[in-house]
């Protein structure tokens, strides 16, 4: 099974935006369709680069650029929400620079979670929904970050959906926003079981049963497998 490689020891330099930056962390994605993530620093400014440049041809030239353009489009709808990365710019058509969230993934920061962490997370999700953005991948623990004060931030919008928040789409947004809310509730049960009540647990179980019928889960995994095959060296 493929897994990401975390490397915090190597201290390399790299050029971004015409300047020399220090790479302070590199997460090399072994999955063919995922970008490498570089956390870079220059004069006390920290950025994150989502970088498809080392990937196979199909990912580097088709999947990666489409993926980044889409994420950039979604992030542009969320401009001004503090707990979301800001767009800095494109280094290349297959390398996107965004602001760094100063913290770590929730699975590594369980001990830091503030008491109202999940209420804050639901509030951020509400802010996204009011702009018409549905994250739809909050169940994935690596998309929830925790800062050093134990507060949440949300990253990774490439599975998100944007619907204009007008009278026509608002009912649909309200319906689909339940996917994000249940995903957050599920994380709350996992990470703060002492704060979760039986009714929340029952609601999440019902949601998980419904999700098994979600055809897109299976379609996405088929698509991933085909692109991985196409990228494999002959
Ligand atoms: N803006 C950011 N600030 C800090 N770390 C980040 C940022 N973006 C990504 N990361 C790190 O990289 C990992 C993968 O990034 P993500 O955007 O979820 O990409 P993927 O599409 O590979 O899931 C995250 O779990 C997080 O550890
Ligand atoms: Mg992710």
Please, how many helices? 5
Percent of residues in helices comes to 25-40%
Q: Based on CA inertia axes, which overall geometry fits?
A: globular
* Architecture per CATH nomenclature, i.e. the level-2 architecture of the largest domain: Orthogonal Bundle
Low-confidence stretches: none
Query: What are the bound molecules?
Result: adenosine-5'-diphosphate, magnesium ion
CATH superfamily of the largest domain: Transferase(Phosphotransferase) domain 1
- Supply Rg: 18 Å
What's this model, at a glance?
This protein has helices at 57-77, 117-130, 170-191, 198-211, 215-231; strands at 5-7, 12-16, 19-28, 36-42, 45-51, 87-92, 95-99, 103-105, 133-134, 144-147, 152-154, 161-162. By secondary structure, the protein is α+β, with helices and mostly antiparallel strands. Strands 1, 2, 3, 4, 5, 6 and 7 form a seven-stranded antiparallel beta sheet that branches. It has a three-stranded antiparallel beta sheet with strand order 8-10-11.
Task: Report on this structure.
The structure is a single chain. This protein has 234 residues and is α+β, with helices and mostly antiparallel strands. The protein folds into two domains: 5-99, Phosphorylase Kinase, domain 1 (2-Layer Sandwich), CATH 3.30.200; 103-222, Transferase(Phosphotransferase), domain 1 (Orthogonal Bundle), CATH 1.10.510. Helix content is 38%, strand content 24%. It has five helices and twelve strands. Strands 1, 2, 3, 4, 5, 6 and 7 form a seven-stranded antiparallel sheet that branches. The protein has a three-stranded antiparallel sheet with strand order 8-10-11. The protein starts with a strand and ends with a helix. The mean pLDDT is 90. The structure holds adenosine-5'-diphosphate and magnesium ion. Magnesium ion is lined by residues 140, 142-143, 156.
